[in-house]
Amino acid sequence: MSGPEKTQQDGAAHKKDDSAGVFAMSLFAAGISVYVSLFVGWLVLPELLYSRQHQPIDFNHAIHMEIVDGCTSCHVFREDGTFAGTPTLDQCIDCHEEVQSIEPEPGDEDYEARMAQYLDEVKFVEEYVQQDKEVPWLIYSKQPDCVFFSHAAHMTSHKFKVLEDGKIGAPPVEFEPGEEPEDARCNMCHMAFIDGEAVPFGEAETLPLYRRNWITTYPIDIWGRNISGFNDHYYDSAKMDDCAQCHYDQRNDHQGQDACFVCHK
Ligand code: HEC
Ligand code: HEC
Ligand code: HEC
Ligand code: HEC
Ligand code: HEC
Questions:
Q1: Does some domain include residue 179?
Q2: Is residue 174 in some structural domain?
Q3: Residue of 57, 59, 112 to mutate, ligand 2, most atoms within 8 A of C-beta
Q4: Domain limits for position 28
Q5: Which residues line ligand 2 (CB under 6 A)?
Q6: Alpha carbon of residue 31 to chain centroid
Q7: Per-residue confidence of the chain (265 residues) as pLDDT tens digits?
């Protein structure tokens, strides 16, 4: 941070005919411009580095969580224990052969929000369900192909600890046997970032914007939002070091690192 400032100062000091006043002024201006550009860079650069895409249709987790039986009714674990991940039409078709919502009338409470949802469902039913076409969802947490990750291992392990407020370093939450909520573990690794707030997926009324880094091509949910790189939560990013940090804390009980082939194919 002091680098560019110092160069400016040295440059100015070498000019013989500078009066003290002009020198002080230019020093001041140089200082300000360094800070202004740092500040602008801090705010604007992260915006420019990422593409912004909406999902093909929006999906409201909160209203579905009131009518279905838990996360895994859509995010299914198959018979063999492997995780199917993104839901396919099979998980939706029982309810969405026809449009479920009632078209709102102008003047209804929350008219615009309800209209947007209604149109999402019409689009879903007409363009996907009735055409028997899967929705091309954008995956926030998609890892490169060389990475091996198993949901089953994380969902069933007794070593995996859910931490208070999901914070790194916080004490683990003690659950009575069989009382751990189904989404407690999901929320350690996944949060919906909506207008800058981290919302548990089960409570989210909309899907987040999908944002991908132009240079690294990683989605922001893997690369992280904080350009200082410091995380308060495991869900803040999912780079190699983030996986390794939780593995050091939990899987290996503060003993050493995993071999490369644990997480790589
Ligand atoms: C009625 C079906 C349904 C239920 C129930 C449901 N989801 Fe989802 N979920 C979806 C759909 C549809 C998407 C959008 C597709 C996608 O991004 O994978 C999604 C996306 C997600 C994603 C984003 C994955 C990614 O990286 O793109 C996470 C995380 C998630 N859901 C977690 C949960 C959790 C946690 C629960 C329970 C609290 C839950 N979901 C319940 C249908 C459902
Ligand atoms: C158990 C029945 C049920 C299942 C399963 C279900 N839905 Fe729905 N869905 C509903 C109902 C009921 C509504 C209307 C809610 C309202 O208007 O209050 C709705 C609304 C919607 C809407 C419009 C509101 C919104 O979310 O933006 C979309 C889109 C939608 N569903 C997509 C899906 C998808 C995709 C799946 C499968 C992954 C799915 N639904 C599975 C019952 C279901
Ligand atoms: C919040 C903590 C946490 C995070 C984050 C995490 N893991 Fe894990 N992981 C665990 C724990 C705990 C185990 C130990 C399972 C056991 O040995 O019972 C584990 C085990 C594994 C295993 C071994 C499965 C097996 O069959 O033994 C793989 C592979 C793995 N993790 C990959 C990853 C990758 C890749 C990431 C990052 C994208 C990651 N993990 C992020 C906690 C975490
Ligand atoms: C230890 C961290 C961790 C936990 C716990 C976890 N996930 Fe994931 N999830 C990941 C990672 C990492 C990926 C990306 C995997 C990849 O691309 O290979 C992922 C991917 C997903 C996807 C997208 C899958 C696809 O189609 O590519 C969905 C949906 C999802 N998770 C939902 C859930 C739900 C629901 C839960 C709880 C039942 C959960 N996750 C628990 C780390 C986790
Ligand atoms: C705890 C899990 C874990 C372990 C152990 C691990 N990696 Fe990774 N590695 C990842 C994840 C997740 C990514 C993708 C995210 C990233 O680039 O940080 C990755 C990315 C990489 C990449 C970049 C791949 C690309 O497509 O750009 C290389 C190279 C790599 N790892 C090598 C290694 C080597 C060598 C070791 C052993 C010394 C190792 N990894 C151990 C999880 C792990």
A1: yes
A2: yes
A3: 59
A4: 2-49
A5: 57-60, 63-64, 67-68, 74, 87, 91-92, 94-96, 100-101, 117, 120-121, 124
A6: 36
A7: 344 444 344 444 444 455 666 777 777 777 777 777 666 666 666 678 899 999 999 999 999 999 999 999 999 999 999 999 999 999 999 999 999 999 999 999 999 999 999 999 999 999 999 999 999 999 999 999 999 999 999 999 999 999 999 999 999 999 999 999 999 999 999 999 999 999 999 999 999 999 999 999 999 999 999 878 789 999 999 999 999 999 999 999 999 999 999 999 9
Residue among 100, 117, 78 at smallest CA distance from 205: 117
What length is written for the chain?
265
Structure tokens at 112: 């615009």
CA atoms of 134 and 115, how far apart (whole Å):
23
Distance, in Å, from the CA atom of 222 to the CA atom of 237, rounded to the nearest integer, reads 5
The number of folded domains in the chain is 2
226-234 own/partner pairs: CB under 8 Å, 24+ apart: 227/42, 227/45, 227/46, 231/168, 232/167, 232/168, 233/166, 233/167, 233/168, 233/188, 233/191, 233/198, 234/166, 234/168, 234/188, 234/189
Which residue out of 121, 191, 201 has the highest number of ligand 1 atoms within 8 Å of its CB and is therefore the one to mutate?
A: 201
| Diameter over CA atoms, the chain | 83
Q: What are phi and psi of 147, to 5 degrees?
A: -90, 135
For ligand 5, is residue 263 a contact (CB within 6 Å)? Answer: yes
| Residues 157 and 259 both lie in one domain | yes
Within a domain: residue 37? yes
Query: For residue 125, is it within any domain?
Result: no
